[in-house]
Sequence to fold (357 residues):
Amino acid sequence: MRVAVVAPNYAPVVGGVETVVTHVARALVERGCTVEVWTHRRAGLPAYEVDEGVVVRRFATTRSARYPLSPSLWSHPRRAARGFDVVHAHSYHSTAALGAALARTPVPLVVTPHYHGVGHTRAARLMHVGYRPLGARLLTRAAAVVAVSAAEEALLRNDFPVLAATTCVVPNGADTAAIAAAEPWPGAAPTVLVAGRLEPYKRVDRVVAAFDRCTAPGRVVVVGDGPDRQRLERLASGARRARDVAFLGRVPDGDLARWLRTARAVVSLSAHEAFGLVAAEGVAAGAVAVLSDIPAHREVAAMLGTAARVVAADDIAAVTAAIDAALTTPNEGPRAVRSWDDVAADYLALYERVVTR
Fold:
């Protein structure tokens, strides 16, 4: 199978969509597929490289950091798509995916939108409304629209009823082999891990507030960066347990795997998610996952079993109790969860169906 993947970014750029795209592309190559990724070019990254068998072509963009546009990436699918069996575009909100749809590729188009349904800032919410007609064109031109959870699929079908016949669910996975091989940090105090982009809707401030009330010894380690970081650092610096909260920024994948193996709990109190990637990674590493009570997290918690707990993010006392309990529970070591190879197998079966059809 020859697969062209269109995505807003690719490794080493860090993010939820980037994690999915990178790991699935590599896993497809492991299964014998030819995979090319067409993506935006960030400063310092090459226009062309081969990453673990994945050909990566990066295209110049406008200077907007949040909403980059690449005319050359938009035109590339028209020229190159005939050399592939399927084009797979990621991210409803990305102009890269939209360009693939507007190009009317001569091969089937699969779209994984990673759809939240709303913007996460006032400006983004206004843009979300204006973008809806274009987003609808992206989704309705797809031979298949893939949600990463049943919760996301329900949201898509509610907002775009015409998609009822084309949606399916392929849950995300975790890099189970790398996580199992990672060594915990030696001598580390009982650790609560928060990992991901630091945006207000992630509600990391509530994790800090809840931890400040905890009585169990331990610390919070925050891995990731984003526009909310400075506010969160100021908040943490004024907390009772300020010395027990560390912001590490972005770290290499190997270091993140070690933090996952070290953690007794991974916590995500996000207001909107299509899945719960950090929860799956944390449970794979042997930690407990403490998750906000949103549809996607409830679904992921059901998949992960007793290692995951859902709490109301507004109930700081309940979050505190969950973190306190986790801090006194040792990391159990690697657990079996869905891997990226499992995800690639599901995608490969889907590609074969749409190509045959």
User: Anything to note?
Assistant: The mean pLDDT is 93.
